[in-house]
Design brief:
The structure is a homodimer of 466-residue chains. Chain A is α+β, with helices and mostly antiparallel strands and 466 residues long. Chain A has 17 helices and 21 strands. At the A-B interface, strand 10 and helix 11 of A face strand 10 and helix 11 of B.
C-alpha cells in the first residue's frame, strides 16, 4: 500500500483545496506546542494538502477518493487541541470541516448541528432560538468547533454541573462516515457513542451531532481571593456541593498564578493570592452571597455585573481549563502542564500532597468536575519544565500517589488517555477504516498491539524532520 | 390576655368570612389523619371563623385586628400538610390565602408570586411564559399552594436534583407580614429565609415569594420493576449519580407496595415486585436507556410516552412522596408512615438494616434526594400501625441505628423536625409575634423552653375534645 497523494489531490481538485504552503502548514498544526515534548517531536509535521468539504456528500467523496489512493486523512475543526490530535503525522490530506457549520434543528433540551460550527456560534443560535446553550464547552469556546470538542475534548466549562462528555447523556447522537471503498453513513447512540467520541477522527468522521442543551443564563462571573490555598480549594468544592446554587464554572489557582500570569487580574491581587474563578447563575446569586457571607476568608475581587476595574478581565472562563496554561506560557515559555484526576473521596488530600511535594515547580490549577455524582477535581497543573526526564518523574510520582495522569505530552489516544487500549474504538477502526488511513499514528493499539507503555510511543511512519 | 374572638370576627365582617360550620371545620383540618396519633389528638380541632383575604392589605388588617383582640391566627394554603401544621389548636381565626393567587413576574430562572397560587397553576404560568417550571414540588402539586409548600414542606419532586427547600438557592426571597400592633412588612433573603420557611406560619405571614425556576420539559414518567429490593435501590441511586442524565424523580417501593396499594399498577406487577418510579427529561432518554441496557435485572413496565396500559396510572409523581402513604391508607386504614433520613455514605446499609429489622411491618419507600452534593435517601416508610408504644419503639430503633426521624406523629415544629429548638425562628417569633398569637401550640420553644423531648408534647391550650 503506497499512498498516491498527488492522485488524490488531483481527483479532489474541484473541491475547495488550500494551495498556499503557509496555510497548509497552519492547518497542519494544533496547540501541541503547549508541550515541549510534542513540540520537539511534531513541529515539522505538515500535510500535503488541505481540503474543505461543504457537505456530507463532499466528506464522503473525499474519504472514498483518499481510500482509493491510499492517502491518509486527518480531520480537524479549529485545531485548538493540545495533544497533537489534529496533526497529520504521516502527511497526506487534512480535511478541515469549517464549512460544515449549519445548526440544523433546535428543540427543548437538544440541538442537532453540523460539526464545524464554532461553540460560540452554536450557543448564540440556541440562545436566540429559545434561551438555551450547550451544557459544557472548552475554554476555547470562541474559536473551537463542536465537532473538534467531541472528537478531541473531554469536558470543560459546565462539567462542574454536568460531568464529562463521556458521561451518559452528554452526547445524544453522532452521525459518522466510514473510510471504506464505499463509505457508509452510520448513526450512533448510547453505547455506540464511545466508539468515535474522543477518538481523534481515527475511525470515522462525524458529520452530524445531537447534543443536550441547558438553559442559557447571563452568568455572573467572579474572581474570589484567598490567603490560604486550602481555603480556596475548600470554597470551590463546598460551593459545588450546594445543590441549590447553580454554577457553570469553579476553578482554583494556586498563588502566584493569578499575579504572575493573569495580567489584567494582577493589579488586584498579591503574589500570595490564591484565586477562585466562578460562573454563577444570576438567580443563584442570593444563595451564593449567603454562602460567601459564611466564609470571611473569601474576598470577591471581581464581579462581571458590578466592578470598578479600569480594564475588565474578559470572560472568566478564559482563565480556566487550558487557557490557564496558555496565559502562563505567554508570560513564561518554559511553563507546560499536566492533566490530573484527583478522585473522590481523597481528592483534597491528594492535591495537598502533590502541592507539598512539588510547589512551586508544579503549581495547582484545579477545575471542579462532577464524576459519578461526586465533586472531584481535574488538575491542569502548571509545570516549570526542565527536562523530559524530570517531567516523566513528576508524572510517575503523581501516579504512584494515586493521581491519574492523562499525559498531554503524548500524541496517542492511549497515552493521553487511561493508558489502556479502548477495545470499542479499536474494533470500530477495524470495521470503518480497514486500511488505517484515518489520522495515522494516533492509536497505538492499531499500529502496535503489543506496545508495553514503558516509554513514549514513537509512530514509525512519523514524517522525518528536515 | 383573653381572646375576644367574636370582636375580631365582627371587626373583619366586611371581608370574605366563611360562616358555614361544615366549611369552617373543613378549613380547620389538614392531612393530619395520616397519623393515628395526630388523629387521636386533633380530630376535634376547629377554628371559630375562617377569613380569606384578597390582598396583602387585607392580611395586614386581619393580623392587626386579631392582635388587638388577642385572637389566634392560623394561616393555611390548601391544607395538604401531614403534620397538623395548618390546624388551629387554640381555635380563633383561620386565615386562608387561596385568594392571594397572582403570579406577579416571571424572569429567566425565577418567578415572583403570591403564596396562594396552586403549584400546578404556578407551573402552568411559568411554562406558558417561557418554558420554565419550579425546581421542586410536593406530590400534592395539583392541589397544594406554593406558600403552603414553603411554610410547611421540605422538598419533593425535583429534590433528587436540586436538594431541599432549606438549601441555599432554593428560595430567593420571602415577603413577610408580622403580627404586631402595627404589622410590619419585611423582605427576607439569604440567612433570613430560615426564620420563616418551614415555620408553619408561627412567626409571620408570607405574602410574596421569589423562587428559582428550572426549564420545563415533557418529562418521561416510568415505572421499572425488579425482583430484588437491593437492585431497585441501587438502580435509583446509580441513576441519580449519572450527572449527564437529568431526572426529576426517582423513588423505590419495596414489595408488595406496588401490588398491594397501587391499584392501576397492580395488574402489571407481582406481589414480589419492587418498583422504581422515575421522571426523566426527554433529551436524557437515550442516556437513560443506555444505563438501563447495562442492568438486565431492571424491566421498564410503564413509560408515559409509550405504553399499552388500558388504564394509565396518571402522573408517576402521584405515587411518590406522601402520595404513597395516601394510596396505602386508602386500601388499608391501619397504615401510617415515618419520615426517615438515610444519610451519605451509609444510606444503603442503613436501609437494608431497617428492612431486615422491620419488613413487612415497616415497608421501605425511598425518595432519592440530594444533600450536600451527595445522593441520599429520604425514607417515607409505610408502617402497619398497632400501638403508639410500638410506633415509638420503631422510631427509637431507627434513631439508635443512625437513621434520623422527622416524626410525622407530632404537631410541633421541633418534634416534626430535628427535635431541637431553632433559635432563628424563636428569636423572630419574639419580634414578629410578641403575643404568641400565630399558629399557637406549634413551637415548643415558645411555650415551654425547658421541654425535655422525652415524650410527646401536649399543648396545654389545645381545645378540649367534646
Amino acid at each position: 500500500m503506497e499512498p498516491n497523494v498527488a492522485a488524490a489531490k488531483e481527483a479532489l481538485s474541484h473541491l475547495e483545496i488550500e494551495t498556499s504552503d503557509s496555510a497548509i502548514r497552519a492547518n497542519s498544526r494544533d496547540f501541541f506546542w503547549y508541550s515541549p515534548v510534542l513540540k520537539d517531536r511534531l513541529d515539522h509535521v505538515t500535510a500535503d494538502f488541505v481540503v474543505r468539504p461543504k457537505s456530507e456528500a463532499e466528506v464522503i467523496e473525499i474519504l472514498k477518493t483518499c481510500y482509493a489512493h491510499d492517502c491518509p486523512v486527518t480531520t480537524r475543526g479549529a485545531g485548538t487541541g493540545n495533544y497533537g490530535q489534529a496533526m497529520p503525522l504521516a502527511g497526506g490530506c487534512v480535511m478541515h470541516l469549517r464549512h460544515l457549520d449549519k445548526v440544523k434543528e433546535i428543540h427543548a433540551g437538544r440541538v442537532i448541528t453540523e460539526p464545524g460550527v464554532l461553540l460560540k456560534d452554536l450557543d448564540a443560535a440556541c440562545k436566540e432560538h429559545s434561551g438555551q446553550e450547550i451544557r459544557m464547552f472548552s475554554s476555547t469556546w470562541a474559536t473551537a468547533t463542536i465537532g473538534g470538542f467531541i472528537a478531541g475534548g473531554s469536558g470543560g466549562v459546565g462539567s462542574c454541573t454536568w460531568g464529562s462528555l463521556r458521561d451518559l447523556g452528554n452526547i445524544i447522537r453522532l452521525r459518522v462516515v466510514t473510510m471504506e471503498e464505499e463509505p457508509r453513513v452510520l448513526e450512533f447512540r448510547g453505547e455506540e457513542l464511545a466508539r468515535v467520541s474522543h477518538a481523534y477522527g481515527t475511525n470515522g468522521i462525524i458529520t452530524e451531532i445531537e447534543m443536550p442543551l441547558a438553559p442559557a443564563y447571563d452568568w455572573t462571573e467572579m474572581f474570589v481571593a484567598f490567603d490560604e490555598f486550602t481555603s480556596a480549594m475548600a470554597f470551590a468544592e463546598e460551593l459545588a456541593n450546594h445543590d441549590g446554587i447553580l454554577i457553570k464554572l469553579a476553578n482554583v489557582f494556586e498563588a502566584p498564578i493569578a499575579h504572575a500570569y493573569f495580567q489584567r487580574v494582577k493589579p488586584h491581587v498579591e503574589a500570595g493570592t490564591h484565586l477562585v474563578g466562578l460562573m454563577v447563575a444570576p438567580h443563584s446569586l442570593d444563595g451564593f452571597l449567603t454562602f460567601l457571607g459564611r466564609r470571611p476568608e473569601a474576598t470577591v475581587i471581581y464581579r462581571s455585573d458590578d466592578n470598578d476595574w479600569a480594564r475588565g478581565p474578559g470572560p472568566v472562563f478564559e482563565y480556566g481549563w487550558n487557557h490557564t496554561t496558555l496565559r502562563a506560557l505567554k508570560v513564561d515559555p518554559s511553563i507546560t502542564y499536566l492533566q490530573v484526576r484527583y478522585g473522590f473521596p481523597n481528592h483534597r488530600d491528594l492535591v495537598e500532597r502533590m502541592r507539598t511535594e512539588f510547589s512551586p515547580e508544579v503549581l495547582q490549577h484545579l477545575e471542579v468536575l462532577k464524576e459519578g455524582g461526586k465533586v472531584i477535581f481535574a488538575g491542569l497543573s502548571l509545570v516549570k519544565f526542565t527536562t523530559e526526564d524530570r517531567l516523566d518523574e513528576i508524572i510517575r510520582i503523581h501516579e504512584e500517589a494515586g493521581a491519574m495522569i492523562f499525559n498531554p505530552h503524548r500524541y496517542t489516544l492511549e497515552e493521553g488517555g487511561r493508558q489502556t487500549v479502548d477495545d470499542r474504538q479499536l474494533a470500530f477502526k477495524r470495521e470503518a477504516d480497514p486500511k488505517g488511513l484515518l489520522n495515522p499514528g494516533k492509536m497505538i493499539a492499531w499500529d502496535d498491539p503489543d506496545w508495553s507503555y514503558q516509554s513514549m510511543y514513537a509512530y514509525p511512519k512519523l514524517q522525518a524532520a528536515e
